[in-house]
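During the second year of the project, the team shifted from modelling isolated chains to modelling whole assemblies. The rationale, set out in the original proposal, was that interfaces cannot be judged from single-chain predictions alone. As a representative example for this report, we include one of the complexes processed in the last quarter. Its constituent sequences, exactly as entered into the pipeline, are reproduced here:
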Amino acid sequence: MAEILKCNHLKKQYGSFTALKGINLELPEGRIVGLLGPNGSGKTTLIKLASGLLLPTAGEILINGQAPGVESKKIVAYLPERNYLDLSKKISKQIDFMGDFYKDFRKERAYEMLEHLGIDPSRPLKELSKGNREKVQLILVMSRDAKLYLLDEPIGGVDPAARDYILSTIIDNHPENSTVLISTHLIADVEPVLDEFIFIREGEILQHSAVDEVKAKGQTVDGLFREVFRC
Amino acid sequence: MLGKLTKHEFLTVGRLAIPAYLAILAISVVGRFLTWITSRQYVIDHVAPTFVRIIKILSSLISTVYVLAFIAFIVMTVVFLVYRFYKNYFTDEGYLMLTLPVKPASLIFSKLFNSWIWLLFSAIIAVASLYITLGHYDQLTDLISRTFDSVKQVIDREGDFIRDELGVPIWVFVIELVIFVILLISRYIFEWYASIGAGTMIAKKHKIIGTLVAFLILDNISYAVTGGFVAIATSVAPDYFTELSQSGGKALQLVVLGYSGVNLLLAGLLFWLLTYVMKHKLNLE
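Output from the structure prediction step:
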C-alpha cells in the first residue's frame, strides 16, 4: 500500500523547546488513524508540519512523496483546532470560496450536509452558535475528496451528541482510499472508528499499531492509553 | 490562483467599502443641500428666521461631521487595507488562507493589487465628495476644462523645449511619474506588510505593538537606504551632479528615475523579508 504521509527523523524546535524529537512515521492510504497523546505532546505540531504551516527544523515530512507545498495542499484537507472562518461572510459565499480553490470540493455535498443540520446557507457565519460554526467548518473540510484529512481535535470541547455527529460525518464522507489522521485525547470516543493509532508523548512516538492487534489481545486502545500514559 | 485571490479579496473589501463610500457621498449631498437651501432668497424671505437659523446651525454641524468623516475616510481606507492583510494571514484566518494551494507570492500580490484598486477608488470618491460639497459646479467644470486646455497648450507650444529639458518626450515622463507613484505606494504597502510579518514574529503576544515597532525600524532603514544611495551617487560623481543640478528638467527626471529604482529595490527587499517570515517564522498561535 502506498504511503500518503512519511516522516524521516522529523524534528521541530520552537526556540529552546523541542516539540518533535526526530520522529519516523509512515501512514498508508485508506486508513483512519488516531494521533493520541496528552496536551503538549506534539500532535498539533505534526499536523501543522503536514499541512505546510510550519517547516521542519531537521529531517523531512513527505505528503504523497513530496514536501508540503502547493501540490500537497491540493490533496490535503485540514481542520485546525481554531475557528478560521471570516465571520462576516455568508455560509454560501464561504462554499463558493472553497469551490474556487479546491478542484476536489463538492458543493452539492456541502449543501446536503447543511440541509441535514437545518442550517440556512444564506445566513452569515457570525449569526451561528459556536457549535454550528464548528460543524460548518467540518462540513467544508469533509466536502472535499481529499487524499489526506488532517483533523486536529475535531471532537474537543463539544457535547457527546455533537461528537457522534462529527465522527459519523467523517466516516460517511471521506473517500475509501483516503487517509484520515485524527488528533485527540478523547480516546474512547474515536476508538470505534480507528484502523490504526499512534501514541505520542513529549515529541516522541511511543507506539504505532493497528487497532485490531490490540483487540486481539483482549485490550482496548483506551485501556492501553491509560496504562501507557499513567501519571 | 492570483486572479481568484484578488477577486475574493475585492468582493470582501467591497462589501465593507461601498457602504462607507455611499455614506460619505450622502453626507456631502445633505450638507450641500442645507447650504443651498439657506442661501435661497425665497427661503430667507418666506420662512421664519428661527427656522432658517436652525437649518444654518444644522448645516454647519453637517460641515463639521463631513470634515471629520472625510479625514476618517482617508485614514480608515489605509488602515483597513493593512488590517485585512494582518487578519487574513496572521490571525486564525491564516489557518485557512495559508493552507490554500497557492504560492505565498500570490497571497501577497492579491492584497497589493487590491490596495492599489481601493486606494484609487477612495481617491475618486474623495474628489467626487469634494465636488458635491463645494458646489459651484459650472465654475468647477470650467476650471477643470480650462486646466486641461492650458496643459495641452503648454505641451503644444513648449513640447520641444520640455523634451530638451527632460531629455525625453513629455508622455514618457508622465509614464515615469505614474510608475514612480505606483512604486512609492507599493513600497509603503510592503513596508506595512513586512512590519506585520516581522512584528508578529518578534512579539508573539503583543502583535499590534510589535507591528508598530517593526514599522518604525523598517521605515527608518528605508530612509537610510535612500539617503545612502544619494550620498554614494553624489560622492562618486560630484561634478556630474553639480552640472545636473543646474539643469532643472534633467535633474528632476533623474530624481524620479533614481527614486523609482530605490523604491523598487526596497519593495523587493521587503517582499523577500515578508515571504521569509510567512514561510519560515509563521506564528499563528
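Chain A touches chain B at residues 51-55, 70-71, 73-74, 76, 78, 80, 82-86, 88-89, 97, 100-102 (CB under 8 Å). Strands of chain A lie at 3-14, 17-28, 32-36, 58-63, 76-79, 148-152, 179-184, 196-201, 204-210.
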